[in-house]
Amino acid sequence: MKNSKKWSVFFRKSLARYSAGTFLAGGVIVGMVLWGGGVKVMEVTSSEAFCTSCHEMEANAFAEYKTTVHYLNSSGVQVECADCHVPADTLGKVVRKVEGLRELYGKVTGKIATPEKYEAHRLAMAEKVWADMQANDSENCRSCHVNFERAIEHQYEWARANHEIMLEENKTCIDCHQGIAHKLPKQNLRTKVLPKPTTPVL
Ligand code: HEC
Ligand code: HEC
Ligand code: HEC
Ligand code: HEC
C-alpha cells in the first residue's frame, strides 16, 4: 500500500518533470532494444549451430545432409537447416519457434536420443515435414528455386518431362523430391510419382 503510493508519487513527479516527448522517445528506444533482441533471438535460433546442438548424433539429420548436394556442391552454395525448415516470414518463424518447444520437450525426455529411437520416430517426423511442405506449396524450396518454371527448358530430359507433369497436375516439389537431404524412412514410403525414363537420359 505504502509502496504503491510512493510509486504513484514518483510517476506523477516524473511526468511533470519530463515532457510527453521524452517518454515517447524513451518508449521508442526500449521498443527498438526489444525488437533488436527479438531479431537476434530469431537469428541465433535459426543457425545451423543451434539446430545441430541437438541434431548432432551420428547417423542422423546432420550427418545425412552432409552427404548431399545441398551441403556441398560445385557452386559453393550451402543450404542450411533453417533454409528448408524455418519459414522465411516473421509470423511463420515465430510459429516455428513456438513449435520448437515440443522439440525441447523431446530433447529433455530423450525421444530421439539414440539411433534406434531416432529410426523408430523417423517416419512420424518426416510425415510432419511432408505435410507442412505440401500445405505451403514447398515454399522453402521455392525461396531458392525461384525461377523454376523458366528453368525447366534448360533442364535435361527426364527432369523436364517430370516438371511438365508437375505443372499439368499441380504437384509441388516435395511430392517427388523426398529424401533429398536425409535418408528416407524405411517403413511405409510414400509412392514416388517419378516415371522411369523411357528414352535414355541426356
Ligand atoms: C532442444 C533440442 C533441439 C533443437 C535446438 C532443435 N531440435 Fe529439432 N527436434 C528435436 C527433437 C527432440 C525432435 C523430435 C520431437 C518430436 O517429434 O516430438 C525434433 C524434431 C525435428 C524435426 C522433425 C519434424 C518436427 O516438426 O517434429 C525437424 C524437421 C527438426 N527437428 C528440425 C530442426 C531445426 C531446423 C532446428 C534449428 C532451427 C532444430 N530442429 C533445433 C530437438 C531439437
Ligand atoms: C538455400 C537455397 C536452397 C533451398 C532452400 C533449396 N535448394 Fe535445392 N538446390 C539449391 C542449389 C544452390 C542447388 C544446386 C547445387 C549444385 O550446384 O548442384 C540445388 C539443387 C537441387 C536439386 C538437384 C539435385 C541434384 O542432385 O543435382 C534438387 C532436386 C533440389 N535442389 C530440390 C530442392 C527441394 C525439393 C528443396 C526444398 C525441400 C530445396 N531444393 C531447397 C538451393 C536450395
Ligand atoms: C512430378 C515429380 C516432380 C516434381 C513435382 C518436381 N520434380 Fe524436380 N525432378 C523430378 C525428377 C524425376 C528429376 C530428375 C531426377 C533428378 O535429377 O533427381 C528432377 C530434377 C530436378 C532438378 C535437377 C534439374 C537438372 O537439370 O539437373 C531440380 C533442381 C529439381 N528437380 C527441383 C525441383 C523443384 C524446386 C521442384 C518444385 C518447384 C520440383 N523439382 C518438382 C521430379 C519432380
Ligand atoms: C534441402 C532441404 C533440407 C535441408 C538443408 C535440411 N533438411 Fe531436414 N528435411 C528435409 C525434408 C524434405 C524432410 C522430410 C523427409 C525427407 O523427405 O527426407 C526433412 C526431414 C527432417 C527431419 C525428420 C527426420 C527425417 O529423417 O525425415 C529432421 C529431424 C530434420 N529434417 C532435421 C534437419 C536438420 C537438423 C538439418 C540441418 C543439419 C536439416 N534437416 C537440413 C529437407 C531439408
UniProtKB/TrEMBL annotation:
It is found in: Cell membrane. InterPro entries: Cytochrome_c-type_ET, Multihaem_cyt_sf, NapC/NirT/NrfH, NapC/NirT_cyt_c_N, NapC/NirT_cytc_sf. Keywords: Cell membrane, Electron transport, Heme, Iron, Membrane, Metal-binding, Transmembrane, Transmembrane helix, Transport. Binds 4 heme groups per subunit. The keyword Transmembrane helix applies. Pfam families: Cytochrom_NNT. Residues 16-186 form the NapC/NirT cytochrome c N-terminal domain. The chain crosses the membrane at residues 20-38. It is a single-pass membrane protein. It comes from the Bacteria. PANTHER family: CYTOCHROME C-TYPE PROTEIN, CYTOCHROME C-TYPE PROTEIN TORY. Belongs to the NapC/NirT/NrfH family. This is Cytochrome c-type protein.
